[in-house]
């Protein structure tokens, strides 16, 4: 069985084609700047890399070009058994992946107020795939679903209860598919049942979130109502004093839109450093740029604080797992974080394993380390494909 997974952003469309018997990636790629000038599509089809510079008027245009490329190989449209879609926000209602019907699609659209940047784009991706593959099963996999087990005392904000109920304001959490995947892989790596482990999963990429996974269930996570809460990210602020928002509104004379842009696009690594939103640029300039040093430490210290609080929340932990762009690729970030909780967690890092650059699941702590520290490359697409195959 072959499954196509789609991850639609407002001007981008990521795709993966996965053969499910062997769970092999046949093709992947991304269309960028959809609806804008200077559009492009990059792909890797069975090891062959390709790229076209082409303007695409909409997501349908993009998917059509992608499918044309895929058809040049042996793939026929009929080979695709189903399409799995990454959907950012499932609200309180969607707790599991679901086959998409018109009623489901309407509900996902109705949740756009909770994720105005993401859900409308996801809906666009679904509509496009429905048109391109009429009659094929389409499955929605929600970023929020894994966090549906978070208890009420951890998802409730200290705001007026009725107002929160009215607007659905509470912690939902994101990156759920990734946190679930790496937690499962951590258990395999440690050769222990997932339901016997307390794991803190650190998904650190452009967007970052930390999750407390107890017995395989998410019990707390750093992102909240929106993906702006938590540690500082590429361009997102992460947690700040809500009073700072009032000050910003007052002193900078911002409206809601401008404030949203400031918190989501002008803050984080970019905003603090003034150098870049990319952690590599920050690390490369630490020695010469004081604000890069500061930014790096704000990032790592933020993770240290979450690890401490989630260790308390779960009454101890067995493992910390790093994943995503920064978590998988930055020995410096991992070393800084682990050195700050060395005595508290009884962590001993295997320096050579931490410095290793490969794409394998691996332990970076020594066998004697009281808390295991792991690096697990995330694979959200495979999880989405698995759910899709199951429902198809
Ligand atoms: P997204 O959240 O968009 O899926 P990724 O998980 O791909 O992002 O992470 C992208 C980020 O990973 C980049 O912005 C960069 O900061 C970081 N990154 C990638 N490689 C390295 C590296 N070798 N060292 C430090 N950071 C890295």
Describe the structure.
The chain has 392 residues and is of the alpha/beta class. The protein folds into two domains: 2-142, ATPase, nucleotide binding domain (Nucleotidyltransferase, domain 5), CATH 3.30.420; 192-380, ATPase, nucleotide binding domain (Nucleotidyltransferase, domain 5), CATH 3.30.420. It has 16 helices and 14 strands. The strands form two sheets. An eight-stranded mixed sheet has the order 5-4-3-2-1-6-8-7, sandwiched between helices. α1 (59-72) packs across α3 (119-132) and α11 (290-313) crosses α13. The mean pLDDT is 95. The structure holds adenosine-5'-diphosphate. The site of adenosine-5'-diphosphate has 13 residues, from α10 and α12.
Features:
binds adenosine-5'-diphosphate, single chain, six-stranded mixed β-sheet, alpha/beta, 392 residues, eight-stranded mixed β-sheet, 16 helices
Condensed summary:
With 392 residues, the protein is of the alpha/beta class. It contains 16 helices and 14 strands.
Listing every helix as H and every strand as E from the N terminus to the C terminus, the arrangement reads EEEEEHEEHHEHHHEEEHHHHHEHHHHEEH
What is the number of independent domains? 2
Q: What are the segments in which pLDDT stays under 50 over at least 5 consecutive residues?
A: none
Major beta sheet summary? 8 strands, mixed
Average residue pLDDT: 95
**Rough outline:** globular
**Distance between the terminal alpha carbons, to the nearest Å?**
10 Å
